[in-house]
Amino acid sequence: MADAVIDSKSEVSDARDVTDLVLQDILAGVLLPGTWLKQIDLERRYKCTRPEVRRALDRLAQKRLVEHVPNRGYHVYEPDGRRAREVSEIRIVLETAVAEAIVEKASSAEIARLRQLAEHFDRMVLNGTTLELYEANLAFHRHLLTLGGNLELVELITEIRQRTSSAPVSQWRTRARVEQSGREHHMMVDAIAASDTDRLKVLVRQHILQR
Amino acid sequence: MADAVIDSKSEVSDARDVTDLVLQDILAGVLLPGTWLKQIDLERRYKCTRPEVRRALDRLAQKRLVEHVPNRGYHVYEPDGRRAREVSEIRIVLETAVAEAIVEKASSAEIARLRQLAEHFDRMVLNGTTLELYEANLAFHRHLLTLGGNLELVELITEIRQRTSSAPVSQWRTRARVEQSGREHHMMVDAIAASDTDRLKVLVRQHILQR
DNA sequence: GTATCCTAAATTGGCACCAATTTTGGATAC
DNA sequence: GTATCCAAAATTGGTGCCAATTTAGGATAC
Question: What is B8-76's CATH number?
Fold first, then answer.
């Protein structure tokens, strides 16, 4: 992807994978749950070819973000309360489990970096798009988990995070809630700096549940 | 260089998805790590079309069981010690976490069913193929996890189990080890029947690590 | 006026062909 | 004898076309 960044012509869309573009539009709430993703529309919307569209849809179906109905097409999954709850449970188990390793291994330099990312999130709350906010949040949490030392876990959580974010707009709509998220980020960094594992665990649990 | 072995006899049914067939051959050790999966070979081996092969390869690449090198093709991933260790860690965290729920919710009927599956595994140790043994093991663990009540977790663990089973043959080679697995299954069922959560957790941890 | 059937448009999904890139084998130069 | 370069073969990956299936619209019967 590094070489693709240099090539910033008229549109970024040619360089990045179509799958990510559709994914982001689903996460951003542009493509609402239940919407039928007609291949001809996606083809035009993302300026790409038919096979690319099909591959993207197949990948999203594998990730279970869209459902495939043979000879009918693909449509965005409806939000599933049970699934969302179960994914939250899984995230709590995994993310509180790494809390110990994080407190143990975090150097002051890495804590400073984490603080930077928390501040970047705050800035995006004030003057950033929904997508930028989403990515700032993701960056913070990815770096947080990276401190645990289990890279496979970082990827896994990043993956399952996308799994139930079918209605991020409604979840992130209220400004108060987003600002609360920002404060919690800083509290987590504080807990790490203070080597307070138990507090970090409580914060992580709350942070996942409150959304 | 060792190319994909062409064996036109092993075709069983057109009904199943090609992706699963390739997946099973990788898990069974028929397609060894490092093997280049030439599209023309797969096409003939599984009696399917070129697009089907491509979709299967793309899906396996998403699951990170094969690596895609542009204009070169797809090859089976080499076993990665670090990754295997990290996946084991994740599995321990997740599977010990559901231990409580399992002990709490398991009815006598479901415990009996679990016992059946453990016994089925034992039979496959004696007179079953590597694949049948693998599936009997999977069936036991899936039912075990199902008792926890978090269906999303069942799917997730099933998924990450496949993620590092690139060398199941070497892992499962010794009969003594497989028989030990069978005994551990029964010990786990015993612990559930006795409502001994802590013992179940210890057993689960050992079971994951010993492989 | 309503329900049913039938025809036509639209969409999906598979198939075959072709261009682009890489690898292999051999010939040539040193 | 060894290394380098070039040409031919093979493989990947994209494009366009067409068949199969579904849906929408309208005509007909009751």
Answer: 1.10.10.10
**Which 3-state string (H, E, C) describes B151-177?**
HHHHHHHHHHHHHHCCCHHHHCCCHHH
CATH architecture of A81-210: Up-down Bundle (1.20)
Q: Which residue has the tokens 């594992």?
A: A197
B61 vs A: CB within 8 A: no
Query: What's the distance, CA B77 to chain centroid?
Result: 16
Residue to mutate among B91, B152, B161, B201, with most A CBs inside 10 A, is B152
- At B13, give phi and psi (nearest 5°): -150, 145
Q: How would you write A181-196 as a 3-class SS string?
A: HHHHHHHHHHHHHCCC
Q: Name residue, tokens 């970090």.
A: A200
Helices marked H in chain B — which ranges? 18-27, 39-45, 50-62, 81-97, 99-105, 108-127, 130-146, 151-161, 168-171, 175-193, 197-210
pLDDT tens, position by position, A166-196: 555 556 667 888 999 999 999 999 999 999 9
A50: CB within 7 A of chain C nucleic strand: yes
pLDDT value of residue A12? 36
So what's the ipTM on this one? 0.84
∠ CA(A27), CA(A32), CA(A34), 5° rounding? 125
Angle between helices A175-193 and A108-127 (to 10 degrees): 170
Tokens 């067939």 appear where?
Answer: B21
When pLDDT is cut at 50, 70 and 90, the band that residue B153 belongs to is: very high
SS3 A1: coil
Q: Which bases on strand C have an atom closer than 7 Å to a protein beta carbon?
A: 11-17, 21-24
What does the pLDDT read at residue A5? Answer: 34
Helix or strand or coil: residue B37?
A: strand
Determine if residue A62 is left, alpha or beta; phi over 0 gives left, psi from -120 to 50 gives alpha, anything else beta.
Answer: alpha
Q: What are the residue ranges of helices labelled H in A31-98?
A: 39-45, 50-62, 81-97
CATH of A2-76, one of 3.30.360.10, 3.20.20.140, 3.20.20.80, 1.10.10.10: 1.10.10.10
CA atoms of A78 and A66, how far apart (whole Å): 9
Secondary-structure breakdown of chain A: helix, strand, coil percentages, each rounded to the nearest 5: 70, 5, 25
- The beta-carbon neighbor of B55 closest among A58, A82, A151 is A58
Ranges of each domain in chain B: 8-76, 81-210
